[in-house]
Amino acid sequence: MRTIMLLNTGWTFVKTAAGPLEAAKASGETVTLPHTWNAADGQDGGNDYYRGTCWYVRELDRPALEEGGEAWLEFSGAAMTAEVYLNGEKLARHEGGYSAFRVDLTGCMREKNTLAVSVDNSDNDRVYPQKADFTFYGGLYREVRLICVPRAHFDLSYCGAPGIKVTPVVDLEKKSAQVIVETWQTGEGDVTIAAAGQSRTVSPVDGHAQAVFTIENVRLWDGVTDPYLYTAAASLPSGDQVSARFGCRKFEIDPQKGFLLNGRSYPLRGVSRHQDRKGAGNALTMEMHREDMAIVREIGANTLRLAHYQHAQEFYDLCDENGIVVWAEIPYITMHTKNGRANTLSQMEELVAQCYNHPSIAVWGLSNEITAASAVDEDLLENHRLLNELCHRIDKTRPTTMADVFMLETDSPILDIPDVNSYNLYFGWYLGELEQNEEFFDEFHRKYPDRCIGFSEYGADANPQYQSAAPERGDYTESYQALYHEHMLKMIEERPWLWATHVWNLFDFAADGRDEGGKHGENQKGLVTFDRKLKKDAFYLYKAAWNKTEPFVHLCGSRYVDRTEPLTEIKVYSNQSEVSLYVDGRLLASQEGRTVFRFRVPITGEHSIEARSGDVCSIMLVRKAEESNPEYIFNKEASAVTNWFDQEIDPGCYSISDTLAELRSNPEAGAIIDRMMAQASASRGDVAESVKDNPALQRMMGRMTLVSLLKQAGNIDEESIKQLNRVLQGIKKAN
Fold first, then answer.
1. CA dihedral 553, 557, 560, 561 (to 10 degrees)
2. What is the spatial distance between Cα 121 and Cα 99, in angstroms, rounded to a whole number?
3. Are residues 460 and 592 in the same domain?
4. Which structural domain range is residue 533 located in?
5. What's the number of domains the chain is made of?
6. Average of pLDDT values for 379-406?
7. Could you tell me the pTM of the whole model?
8. Distance between CA atoms of 111 and 178, rounded to whole angstroms?
9. pLDDT for position 515
10. 147: how many CB neighbours lie within 10 A of its CB?
C-alpha cells in the first residue's frame, strides 16, 4: 500500500554554508514550507534581491517499509536548481524551478537521517529563466512529500509523472468517448484499471499496461458551463494504487472561426497569471490558489495563460474543476542561450508528463518573447523544432503555440514551427497608438488567412492612486488603464477569429528591476493589486463583458474624488442592459446599452453619485476642487517635459507634431529623424535593432507623431526638444 507523508515542517533555513555537513551544523531559521528567501527583497525594487545558494535541512526518520518496498522524496517545486543530500551523500540534482521531481532514498537511509537540500537561483546560462520581467524567487516554495510504496508499484522514476495516463477521444456525432488508460509499473502482477464504472484486468508488457473503455452518452467537460470530471484508477495486487481525473472534450482551433470547444464556437477570452503575491513571494498556500481562482471566476474569464512556467498541480486542478481553458508553458523566455537547450527540453518533458491528464490544458507554449534579445538564427530555430517535436511525440492530442514579441517580423521562419501563432502587442502603452493593435492583426489575418492567430499579451500599467480627467499613455493612471482596455475589448470582440486573448495581467506581480509608476519592484499591469485587496476599474470592464451570472454595476473613478472640471464624466461598467444615475438622490438620467455607460455630471460642491440597475447599485463621492490633487499625479523625476513650446507652431513648416512618415517624406527632415533613430538604436541594443529591421513595425511607427515618440522615450531635456522643433520649423513643407 502506498503512503504519503507531508514534510512541510521541521526545516531549518541556512542562507550560506560550504556544503551539506556545514549546513546541518549551522544555526539557521526555523521555517515551514512553502518558503522563499525572496519574499521581501524580491519585491522592493532595486534589482538587488539575493540570488545564490541557500540550504534547507531537517531530520528524517527511516519509515517502515514492506519487504522490498521503496521510499521516495517528492519535491513539488525548488527554484531554480536543487541538489539533494542524505547524511552528506549527494543523491540527485534537478535543474528547473517549476516542475516536480523525485529522489529514491531507499538504499541510502539509516534509522536517523539528516536531509539537506541546496537550492540555487543564481544567474547562469544553462537553466531558464534568467532574463525576464519578473522576480526569480529562490526556495522550496511548494510542498515536499515522502512517498512509500511496496515492491510492486506504479512508476515514480519518470519525470515526476503520476504513473497513469488518460487519453479521451470524443465522437461528437455518436455522443461517445473512447478512453485510453495507460499505466507504468515496477514489479510483477496484473493491473486492474477502471474508468466511468467499467473495469479491466490486464497483464503488463515491459511494465506498461493499457485498457480502452467506451463511454456512451458521454457527459462532456464543457468549459465554465459544465466542467464535468471522470476518474480513472489503477491498482496492483500489492495494494499500490494511482488515479487521475479526466474530462472528455474536443478542442479545435480554426483560422477563421477561432477556438471551438466540443464543436461550437468558444472564443477564449481571459487573463494571464503569475504565481506570486505581496509578502509571500511564490510560496503560495492552497487558500491563496483558491482565492485567485475565485477572482478568475468573478471576472468571468474562460481561459488562463499560466505564465511563464509550470504552475502548481493544485492550480491546474482548480482549472479542471472550474472549466478554465489553459495555455501551459515553460520559462524559455526573452533570450536564447546555446547552453540552455537541454534544459528547455527537460522542462518541457516534465511539463507535459506531469500535466497531461488535466482536461483544462489546451495548448503547450514553446517560448515567450524569445526573440526580444536574440536573433532568429539556426540554433534558436532548431531548439524550437526539437521542443515542438517533443510535445507531439509525448502528446499527440494538443497543439503547440508560442508568444511572439511585437518586433518579430510576421514572415519569420519561427512562426512556421508551432501549430498556432500568438503575439504580444503593447501599442498604446509602450509604443504607438491604440489603433495599431487592430491594424497589426487585420494585416496579419489578411496576409495569412490560413494561420491561426491569438493575442497572448496586452496591457497598461496603473497605480490606483493616480487619476485624471484627461488620461494619456504613460501617466500610470487608473483612468488611462480603463480607457486602454475599453478600446482593446471592443477591438477583440470585433475579431472572433482571434483564437485566444489574454490580458497581461490579472494581478500585479513582482519585477524587482522595475521602479516606475510610484511603486518599487512591481509590474502594475494587473487588473487587481498585488495583495489582491483592490480591483482596479478595468477589472470591472471585463466583468461587465464576460460575467453573465452575477448582476452588478460599478462606478468608475471612485478613487478620483477631487475634480477641478465643472462638468465631469461619470462612467459605469455593468453587465445589465439599463443603468440609471442618481446625483444626491435625484435621478439624472437612464441609459440603455452594453458594458460601458457614460454620463455628464455638473459638479459644484460635494455630491453623492449612485448607479442603479434593478436590485444592484454602486455609490461614490465626488467634490469640486479649485486645484488638482497632487496625490493623483505621477511625478517622475527627469520625466519628459509637458510644455515644450514657447511659441506657436507654423503649420507650413515641419514640427515635432508631424508623423514620422510625414517627416521622412522630406529629405532634410527625414535625415534628422534617421540620425535620431540611429542614435536611439545604438543606445538600446538588441531590442532596438529588432525594431529597426522590422518593416511592418516601421510602417506602424510611421503613423506616430514625433512628439508622442519623444514623450514615450522620456528623460529628454526640454531645451533639446525645443531646439529640435526650431530646426524642423525651419524646413518648409511642399505646397
1. -30
2. 15
3. no
4. 254-550
5. 5
6. 97
7. 0.90
8. 48
9. 87
10. 18
